[in-house]
Design brief:
homotrimer; alpha/beta; 8-stranded mixed sheet; 19 strands
């Protein structure tokens, strides 16, 4: 078996087995729950603390980029630290308390300490009148101001009178922090997996993605792979911009990529294609999700959303898609206190994990083969290949997979081509190719 | 700004503003009403009189082509003049009177003066049994005969007896007449706008088209444009054949074109594609109509209809589509006395006018640009570009337009490409490109 | 008229007329009924006897290929002969009798003569519990064993007790038999028509196909054609493998082909595309069936079914589709005694025959033409071409066909291209081209 054919030697099916485990959902959930309370922002100790927890699972590298550093068209902003924040009523009782929920503070808020009447205070308070029980998540990164967020009901309950509003935060020169873990494969070609780390206590968006990637990286770390896998946990927009700026000349090595967010809720899957629209990662994710759920929400690229915007910018054109369960901005809990740990579940996290693993399996193992006996069908019976599968309840599916692989293995069609055309799951197609290869009915014919 | 970039300098949005006016619908309607009573045919004084009215708005040129002139495979026919026509009953009362409605005479009818009993007369009378109140429109251009048209009800009311049928017409050598107005643009490339002038008192088909083009030509006359605009008011089939014959060597300059007919009624829009099917004019019209109405009737080319048949013939292959509201031959009033001035309205004429203007805007102003900061997204906030649009209620749409233009402006995608892919109206895309150009975020990259 | 133009000289419309006859359905049915009772298998006297009956209609050649002959990856198996088979009860009454229905024996069954109790006997009996009245059709070609097939009801009616099971069959060296008829055309390019001959008393699958091909071959035999037509009546899989093996170097001459089976039942048409998917035969069959029925079942190639599997194998890549009425394995009578002579009818056989003839007409006569007067439309009236068709009730369709052929005959579009785009039946398009050719409005421009 040549180096090319090696695609179907381990790793192969074994990649999926090695990456999976029965309790993967619980493990992802536990880490998500652990980092959920931390108050993250685009810079500051919250990001560092989160990365420290992830680093207990995977030996990631923490990068610090000083405030003021130029990054493409942007500049690294000041670092934000927050110690406390509250609104006290006339009786000096905390009616809004950052310690109870970090969404209460406008993220990246300037410090303030002021007394003011209710009418005046309201100018600095964000609520969601249509979802009166929930605290909204609001930010003000590039426009310095202060503010609070609270539920409409809580605001309505405040009596007239004077209030004290205090935000004990700091905006000062420091650094922007991001985490990176690189698993070296046989080639320099890279598969990028990226999640934003800037959101505070929002479970689905994006403790789910951060945690899933950490545990995927942990498992992948010990394996032999063809691709190099790069994991990024970075603040949204500015983090990706900074990373691209520092890796401007080597970013082209990224051949496939997925941004992950909102991967823990109970909706069906969403996949947003790359700008190119038919990249291998688009085909892989579409194939995988099409076999996992009846009607996955496969949508075309648009230049809004998460960091796929930056990766797909015309100066880089990296083939990076976005993977989610609920599509961002379409679910009621989005960017509210409703996006909490009850909104995500181990079972759904495990499904998302397995979808990504299945896509990795395709990208790793897709290959072309040549039918060694291409004239007519080989007589499978005399080789025991029907017997090999006959006892199986899936024998019809396996026979069909064998006929498809033999028929389309003309050196032009890859296993993914065959899987797409036959609508047979890629893994069965690949296992079948391995079986036929072992029976000298196929020969390797290169990578797609 | 280079010559290329000039696309988004005036003209640009200003083209639309300059061509529009609040009362454009009334103005088109008034001219249509003025020419409605004239008895036109493929040749003769009716055409000349109609062109004279149009010429009061726009300095068109009237061409006269003598009877017998060879034109491609055809020959210019004799000129038809008609002074009077009637059927009188035994009491010498006019029971059918050309002076009351010119549809009463078979168009291009040979002269006749004859007395004959009702049964014999009926052989020369056309009616519409299924629409017994309406007078049909019938012609006999290339087969000399005489005849009358009347409502079925009127025919049924005629008592037995002898009748006198008189058609005081002349068929004699003369000339075929067509009108032409050419607005010179910066280039020799042409945009053709063509309407048939041979139908008598039919308001939608085609007083509406004749009039719309006259008032569009009037407004365009004073403007600076990139394309040269050629307006043709010519008799159906033979008029286009004659024009093509006389412009055989220069017709290739026509890069885009639209035939207009039936543009005044109240139905949604119809656009029939060019033979090529995906010409720029097809894309422009499809885009425009898709944003004006929910389900425009966009149909493939077929070699029947109006003069797009001649322009799209395989020896010319000019990219000329057909624009209508109701599709010809599909509405009950089609080719009957029901197609009168009550069937068209100023509001609908104005909508049709604006659709054509929007298509012209696309053809004039489509251009490619290159994102000057293509790596990652430029920081729009620091340039006040979010501010520039933030106060707007349409700010989300404007932001999305900015992101789309930046993302796809790689020198390959034109503004129309971007408008199609983003489903954002072309004009907003073009305005956005102009804004980004003014902020040095785009550079011109040529014409599509 | 040049050789190219000759496409529309006879043959042309005349091909269809020559191949058709009013009673073709009855003729096919009669032959199907004649061969229905014969017990065929992949080898043996049943195949020979069937071919002898077909040979009474068409001078086919009978090929005998000895047992043990290597054929691609396969080996010609032993010959199977069967004289009698039965199950007798304790009273020596035949409770299952091969003489009453040859489906009662597992096809290609090894001989046996044994006494055994009911419980033991049942291990060798196949039934259809969900269709308890029907005898299933079962085979065991490459795995030597014995068995019977019977209805579930008949099995249930058997009392406990001892039974005698006898199969008087022979499996011994001999030969595999297939029939072939080649009609030589002007060129060596071939059109293959193939039907499997290995099924015993199953009327639709495939007495219908065997018989249809015999009578098509009979009629085609005397005709002048462009293509060479090759008819094959061969046992499924091994027959096609053997033929391909023996014609390995010349098989590439097959440019178009259709496998026929199940062409006599009352369902709409099924056509399974070639592996390539858009071969001329795919386009021809899709066009023909689209005009014969509202919603033909046009399905993509998959490597399972009949001998199209072998012809489309990657070492041959012959453009051979599959034509059926009911798709195999989708109708309740499939592979049961319900597939009898009452399940097929002359009318449905005639429709299937005419579909194939119409496809042959397209493959034979498709050609490209050039409009001699391509600038504008030619004036048809002065050539009497409107008159030529005006008196016809189909005159609108004929006029449209003329306009389409003139518009698209630019030397690039073939008649089939025009038929597809205009949705006008190919034969009308071809007749129209012939008329225009005769009027010097078209000139030949080659074959597609």
């Amino acid at each position: 078996m040549s180096a090319d054919g090696g695609a179907l030697a381990p790793p192969g099916a074994s990649l999926i087995e090695a990456l999976d485990s029965a309790d993967i959902g619980e493990e992802i959930y536990a880490l998500a729950a652990e980092i959920y309370p931390i108050c993250r922002s685009i810079t500051g100790p919250g990001v560092r603390e989160t990365l420290a927890r992830l680093a207990e699972r995977v030996p990631l590298e923490m990068h610090e980029v000083p405030t003021g550093t130029k990054a493409l068209d942007w500049t690294v902003p000041q670092e934000w630290s927050i110690r406390d924040a509250y609104i006290k009523n006339a009786a000096a009782e905390r009616v809004v308390d950052f310690c109870k929920h970090n969404l209460h503070v406008l993220n990246y808020s300037a410090p303030v300490s002021v007394r003011l009447p209710l009418a005046e205070l309201k100018k600095y308070v964000f609520t969601l009148p249509s979802q009166p029980d929930l605290i909204p998540y609001r930010t003000s990164y590039y426009n310095e101001r202060w503010g609070f967020c609270m539920s409409q009901n809580a605001l309505d309950a405040l009596p007239e009178g004077e209030y004290e509003a205090v935000i004990d935060s700091t905006l000062e020169d420091g650094s922007l922090t991001y985490g990176e873990f690189v698993h070296r494969g046989e080639t320099e070609d890279e598969f990028l997996l990226s999640a934003h780390i800037c959101h505070p206590s929002l479970a689905n968006d994006n403790c789910s993605g951060l945690s899933l990637l950490a545990l995927l990286a942990k498992r992948l770390a010990g394996m032999k792979t063809r691709y190099t896998y790069r994991f990024l946990w970075a603040p949204g927009t500015i983090g990706a911009i900074v990373w691209l700026s520092r890796n401007e000349t080597s970013a082209h090595r990224i051949k496939h990529g997925v941004v992950l967010s909102c991967v823990g809720d109970g909706k069906d899957f969403t996949y947003k294609r790359t700008r190119r629209g038919n990249a291998p990662i688009d085909r892989a994710m579409t194939h995988v999700l099409g076999h996992m759920t009846a009607k996955p929400n496969i949508i075309d690229f648009f230049p809004y959303g998460y960091d796929e915007r930056q990766y797909n910018s015309p100066g880089f054109k990296l083939d990076v898609g976005l993977f989610q369960r609920s599509q961002f901005a379409t679910f009621p809990e989005y960017h509210t206190s409703g996006d909490n740990l009850a909104f995500i579940s181990p079972a759904h996290l495990a499904e998302s994990y397995r979808a990504i693993v299945a896509a990795i399996d395709i990208i790793e193992n897709d290959a072309r083969f040549r039918n060694v006996l291409p004239k007519g069908e080989p007589q499978l019976g005399k080789r025991g290949l029907y017997a090999a599968i006959g006892g199986d309840k899936d024998s019809y599916a396996k026979s069909m997979a064998m006929l498809w692989v033999l028929n389309l293995s003309d050196g032009e069609h890859s296993l993914l081509d065959i899987a797409e055309r036959s609508q047979i799951p890629f893994r069965l197609v690949a296992d079948t190719a391995e079986l036929l290869l072992a029976n000298d009915l196929l020969a390797p014919a290169g990578r797609p």
